Amino acid sequence: MTDPENARLQVAVIIGSIRNGRFGPVVADWVISHIAQREDMAVDRVDLLETPLPVHMPAFGEVPSDEVREKVGALSSRLAAADAFVIVTPEYNHSYPASLKNAIDWHNEQWHAKPVGFVSYGGVSGGLRAVEHLRVVLAEVHAVTVRNTVSFANYGQLFDAEGKTTDPASDVAAKAMLDQLAWWGQALRDAKKTRPYTV
Ligand SMILES: Cc1cc2nc3c(=O)[nH]c(=O)nc-3n(C[C@H](O)[C@H](O)[C@H](O)COP(=O)(O)O)c2cc1C
After folding, report:
1. Beta pairing partners, 118
2. Ligand 1 center from residue 27 Cα (angstroms)
3. What's 25-51+74-194's CATH class?
4. End-to-end CA separation in angstroms for the chain
5. 117: CA distance to ligand 1 center in Å?
6. Which atom of ligand 1 is nearest to the CA of 125?
7. Which residue among 22, 92, 154 has the greatest number of ligand 1 atoms within 8 angstroms of its CB, and so is best to mutate?
8. Whose C-alpha lies nearest to ligand 1, atom 1?
9. Residues enclosing ligand 1, CB less than 6 A?
10. How remote is the CA of residue 25 from the centroid of ligand 1, in Å?
């Protein structure tokens, strides 16, 4: 029987890009392959393309329509079930995609007191400007971002046809980021059992 104290950390890997022809799933599946090798984590692959959200938000206090609640709820339940997140983001105009901002904004307590790690990709900046913007936004919803980022600059040259990275340094970077995510995820999960996050 699983000891709940030692249960695997539930990690939601969020694919931030929903563009036709996007590269995001290749990067997401690469980091998922790293998570799959770990004994301390279980993964949920959350593709924002598969859980489309409205952009038109209700007024404060307004009860959304059944259709909106159903659409948002499909994503909310998966975010709520996660102990930790890995956000896979490209860089769009020196920031991150609108689809990702919308997913963050529709939620609040689902992010609370949970760690977030990043895998970014883009041109020469490797998506790091998107990550720095995300750190500021996620602090507002009480999430904790981990220090190390995995970043792919000029990513087109860095993955082979099977979606594996050609630079072993990326695997080292993924381990460092996931180790930090595990530390924070376990620490916060344990802390919330005795001290619910209500601040
Ligand atoms: C609207 C848009 C804006 C972009 N702006 C940037 C940018 O500011 N910096 C950058 O490095 N790449 C930029 N790019 C290139 C993307 O990093 C690249 O197209 C990447 O493949 C996008 O991720 P995706 O394929 O998963 O959508 C931009 C791409 C799009 C579609």
Report:
1. 87, 149
2. 14
3. alpha beta
4. 34
5. 20
6. 11
7. 92
8. 92
9. 17, 19, 22-24, 90-94, 122-123, 125
10. 14
Q: Give the model confidence (pLDDT) of 105-125 as tens digits.
A: 999 999 999 999 999 999 999
CA of 108 to the centre of ligand 1 (A): 27
Let me know: does 17 contact 90? Beta carbons within 8 Å: yes
Of 118, 121, 120, which is closest to residue 155 (Cα–Cα)? Answer: 121
Q: pLDDT tens, 129-176?
A: 999 999 999 999 999 999 999 999 999 889 999 999 999 999 999 999
Contact 116, 149 (CB under 8 A): no
Tokens found for residue 39? 């004994």
Q: Identify the DSSP state of 19.
A: -
What is the predicted pLDDT for the residue at 157? 87
* pTM exceeds 0.90, yes or no: yes
Residue 142's identity, in one-letter code, is H
Burial of 128 (0-12, 13-18, 19+ CB in 10 A): middle
**Could you tell me if residue 173 is left (phi over 0), alpha (psi between -120 and 50 degrees) or otherwise beta?**
alpha
8 A C-beta contact, residue 146 and residue 108:
no
Write down the pLDDT at residue 2. Answer: 46
Query: In angstroms, what is the span from residue 120 Cα to ligand 1's centroid?
Result: 11
